[in-house]
């Protein structure tokens, strides 16, 4: 039996085995298995995963993870559903998921035990995007942190002494974690978010809120725990940023240094940090994550087939999946009473979602924007202005426009620089206007720091070092900002032993989007681009950010390989030496 709406053809946004995105039209309706419903989709929720497929190696499938819709055709047994029921759910899509499960298509197949009838207290729009985030939060708290699902909403004091930190609490997952934490009776719920979200999060259950952009947030959080005489026993990185100075996992971990046995969870794969558990309880299929370490998405196309990958296998866990599902049903029952997403995750597309979604993805692909977070945000909320990420994975669009319209915006007044850096500077065309602050940093570097970095016994004179640096400094804007950042960092390391320099970081913030652009251009493999990556590695080494070092190092290795190996670089001996170093 089918609903009254005449079946039409199916339309689906798809990713091919060659990582190409397209909208597939005039498709036949999916064929559900004997225990599946055929559903006509009304709304589908957008998740960051929607445009991470390429990097995660999820290919040859139809896109989308959660939905609400109308039951169009029933299985041949009493499933508890009727044709015309308005239902929501999620499907076993993603890795190896058959195309029939993609939720952004007009019709999909959904196993009967992965859909539920939408109760009157749950608006259909919210229902379309409740599953992924809520089940992930449940997986984190119940399966990975070990809290008792029976304690949800009960008066049990079992979780009372625990204290939980949720870094990125206004993400959909973070938001659900806060609310589950409160429902479990956890007394101290520490959360980071933009200040504009603090009141909302406190309303939902956060007991202490911090701005993730505040450089003292970690110290303040530790102080709150010390003053309150509690340990952070569980720390969740719910945002999953990587990169130069906003690596949410690193920050999350730093909050727990006073309690090293804290359970650490990250919502994204952390291949270089085994301390973190990752939620991904799948019901009955083994998931083999193949994470590409890529300089840019374009490079995937250039280097198809031989890009380095990191593998992580997650075995199916039926029990864990059942616990997630039960927690979801609990949330759905109490929606509006205890749980609500407010504006969070209302990233819904109206009917015929596939076309809208595709347009957003296509636009970002064209712009070389691989950062999934902006996809929904363009529609309903502010973008992740604060996210600054490593250039190989994600593009920090917002930060660039927010901080660095032009270099003079951040100029501070300095005493007149001492000795000049010589005639070479005067005769070079700079890609940006060199401000007093930068000139001071460059001068200081050549006048005192370089002398300590290149001691005479190494056989490199200051003049030779200067020529080496000047050759790369003014090649382009990215190189300029990146190398001024390195000079500034080195100055501060040698001057005050301080490796975290806000001035250097502001140059890095400006260089990252430019680096991304270069990596997406024909210049991707030039000497200058390789020099930029070397500079990034040096800076991360100074900051001791191992994960970033590894990512840049992998990027560097690929670049050298794609250039044909080290021998092909020998024309530029300084560069070759630096790579070998
Ligand atoms: N493992 C899994 O099964 C699984 C499932 C779902 C999601 N995920 C992953 O979990 C992450 C969150 O997904 P989501 O859908 O919940 O995210 P989302 O709703 O798209 O997150 C958007 C929010 O991120 C916050 N944010 C941006 N940059 C931040 C930073 N540097 N620090 C802290 N918060 C920041 C912003 O909060 P403000 O408004 O406060 O600025 C923004 O509102 C993603 O990386 C996603 O891929 C994993």
UniProtKB/TrEMBL annotation:
SMART domains xrefs: PKS_ER
Share what the entry says about its subunit structure, partners included: Monomer.
Single GO molecular function:
oxidoreductase activity, acting on NAD(P)H
Q: Name one Pfam family in it.
A: Fungal_trans_2
Q: Does the keyword Oxidoreductase apply?
A: yes
What is the protein name for this chain? Enoyl reductase (ER) domain-containing protein
Spell out the InterPro entries in the cross-references: ADH-like_C, ADH-like_N, ER, Fun_TF, GroES-like_sf, NAD(P)-bd_dom_sf, Trans-enoyl_RdTase-like
Organism of provenance:
Zasmidium cellare ATCC 36951
Q: Does the keyword Iron-sulfur apply?
A: no
Q: According to its UniProt record, which protein family does this protein belong to?
A: Belongs to the zinc-containing alcohol dehydrogenase family.
PANTHER family (UniProt xref) = HYPOTHETICAL OXIDOREDUCTASE (EUROFUNG), ZINC BINDING OXIDOREDUCTASE, PUTATIVE-RELATED
Enoyl reductase (ER) domain residues: 16-329
Cite the entry's keywords alphabetically: Oxidoreductase
| Highest taxon of the lineage | Eukaryota
